[in-house]
Specification:
Elements (H helix, E strand, L loop, with lengths): L14 H29 L1 E6 L2 E9 L4 E5 L3 E5 L6 E10 L1 H9 L1 H5 L1 H36 L4 H22 L10 E4 L4 H5 L2 H29 L12 E6 L6 H13 L4 E4 L9 H4 L12 E3 L7 H9 L3 E3 L3 E5 L2 E5 L18 H16 L7 E3 L15 E4 L6 E4 L5 E4 L19 E8 L6 E9 L7 E7 L21 E5 L13
Parallel strand pairs: 3-5, 7-8, 8-9, 9-10, 12-13, 13-14, 14-16
Antiparallel strand pairs: 1-2, 2-5, 3-4, 4-6, 7-17, 11-12, 15-16, 17-18, 18-19, 19-20
């Protein structure tokens, strides 16, 4: 009969409908996940200042944890949590104004850790909020664009919210703050521990260094007052004063010392025999532009820690000269110089001990350049003392650095070789040694008429945790007044007048060279 169903007929299967419903929800989950992920990759990024750095923060699909990249040196990774997203922090550049303010203000320096922590926390909170918002928006937009149903954006929002909540839950459950003290390094940063020691040791030593800065500054002021009472080095005031610095290694205290000596001693120029940086990298290079504001000529030769990019940047700064088998003149004093032929910032390669013939060949090329000049130069600049022997007898004074140990000696041909210590106290690497590395520089006084070195003042500031400040003047007699082999130029001769302010015991330097 019409309209009456057959009770014996089989019922329709529920599985096709369930499959359709399951497929729809799988599509919804895939669309929500895909939309959220695309939105996060495109828009979930925060630019923020972190201490002296301008940084970029973002979440990226990975196995959790946090990564701090320092291009081009490499990155450090800390497995602080698990999950599908990794926090990536890229230190893009250094703000010179903030860096200088930090380096020159002991009050700001004392709070640097708290400031960086506060900046980082604020940036991460902003990043989390932005990530949540763009993920929800991306999931809703993609869900609506594909399925074209009024309720799909709300469903997409709900699914994305569940995914984000699950990600946050996994991160909170697996949070491992102790991993911050044992990060993994990549790139050149692999050598960070071997170069500067453990984080705890560095922190303790830097606190001691920081606490002594005020005493050092006070003592330097007293030193300048004392030196002004010394007689003029050449018997009158008509001398050319040149400041010799070397191996600054980015130490802000070294740059500050250089600037103070330039002003207080009224030097006519600064002569830098290299290693102004540690790695010659772009982030470091942005910290050395202050030498263009010293107000006096700056003459520089590359050290084995300085890259070609470092030399190029210095050469582009106002009032600077980069010497490489070339010459310049300052107030009538002629100066030649050549770079270190090596570039060995990575100590693990072993290339720093390249054969002496490489360095000697470099000195020979400079000697050939000197041979072609109409007049003999007054001063030669090299980075490594092993470059000096070919210049013996051709240049009366050769300035060098690299060894981090000050030494003045006379070569067989009569040339005076003056090796500077480290004006930067060997930089951060000074924090790893048992004894502090002093900050050293030398003011050389030349006769403007004949270019002869008349005298020099050796300035020494005690290193880490010390407040000792000393200055020793050595008068160099004319050649016709020198007696035999005793040129009167040894920094330890009784001819020198020494003034010192000592608030700490002596300690032999023990930081690595070059």
């Amino acid at each position: 009969m019409v309209g009456v169903s057959d009770p014996t007929a089989p019922l329709p299967s529920p599985w096709p409908r369930r499959a359709r419903v399951g497929g729809l929800w799988a599509l919804r989950i895939g669309l929500a996940l895909g939309g959220a992920l695309v939105a996060v990759l495109l828009f979930a990024r925060v630019e923020a200042p972190i201490g002296p750095f301008d940084a970029s923060l973002a979440f990226r699909p990975a196995g959790g944890g946090a990564e701090v990249s320092v291009p081009p040196l490499g990155a450090l990774v800390a497995d602080v949590y698990d999950g599908p997203l990794r926090l990536e922090v890229a230190l893009q550049s250094v703000d010179q104004t903030r860096a200088q303010a930090l380096a020159t203000d002991p009050v700001r320096l004392s709070g640097v850790v708290d400031r960086v922590t506060e900046d980082l926390r604020g940036a991460v909170v902003e990043l989390v909020v932005r990530t949540v918002l763009v993920a929800l928006a991306g999931a809703a937009l993609v869900s609506w664009a594909v399925l074209r149903r009024r309720r799909e954006p709300l469903i997409g929002l709900g699914l994305a919210a569940l995914l984000l909540a699950g990600t946050a839950g996994v991160g909170a459950a697996t949070w491992r703050p102790e991993a911050l003290s044992a990060p993994r390094y990549t790139g050149l940063l692999v050598n960070a521990n071997s170069l500067i020691g453990s984080v705890q040791d560095i922190a303790a030593r830097f606190d001691a260094y920081r606490s002594s800065l005020e005493d050092i500054v006070a003592n330097v002021g007293s030193l300048y007052s004392t030196i002004s009472a010394l007689p003029a080095p050449g018997g009158d005031d008509d001398t050319v004063a040149l400041l010799h610095v070397s191996d600054l290694h980015l130490n802000p205290a070294g740059f500050d010392l250089m600037r103070q000596v330039v002003g207080q001693f009224q030097v006519d120029a600064v002569l830098d025999t290299g290693d102004i940086t540690d790695w010659g990298s772009e982030p470091e290079n942005q910290l050395i532009t202050s030498i263009g504001t010293l107000g006096v000529p700056y003459v520089y030769v590359r050290g084995n820690h300085d890259s070609a990019a470092t030399a190029e940047l210095i050469g582009s700064l106002p009032n600077t000269t980069v010497l490489n088998d070339s010459a310049t003149e300052i107030a009538g004093i002629s100066i030649v110089g050549t770079r270190d032929p090596r570039f060995t910032p990575d100590k693990s390669t072993g290339d720093d001990d390249a054969g002496p013939e490489v360095l000697e060949s470099s000195g020979e090329r400079l000697a050939e350049f000197v041979d072609g000049l109409d007049e003999r130069p007054d001063v030669a600049l090299v980075h490594d003392p092993k470059q000096a022997p070919p210049l013996d007898g051709q240049v009366p004074v050769v300035l060098a650095g690299h060894t981090h140990e000050r030494e003045v000696s006379e070569l067989d041909g009569g040339t005076l070789l003056m090796v500077q210590g480290s004006t930067g106290g060997a930089g951060l690497r000074a924090l790893q040694g048992e004894f502090p590395e002093p900050l050293t520089c030398t003011v050389l006084y030349f006769d403007p008429d004949d270019g002869r070195l008349a005298a020099y003042d050796e300035i020494t500031l005690g290193g880490l945790g010390e407040t000792e400040v000393t200055i020793q003047r050595t008068v160099v007699p004319p050649a016709d007044e020198q007696d035999g082999d005793d040129a009167g130029t040894d920094a330890g001769d009784d001819a020198g007048d020494e003034t010192g302010i000592d608030d700490a015991g002596d300690g032999a330097p023990a930081s690595p060279t070059g």
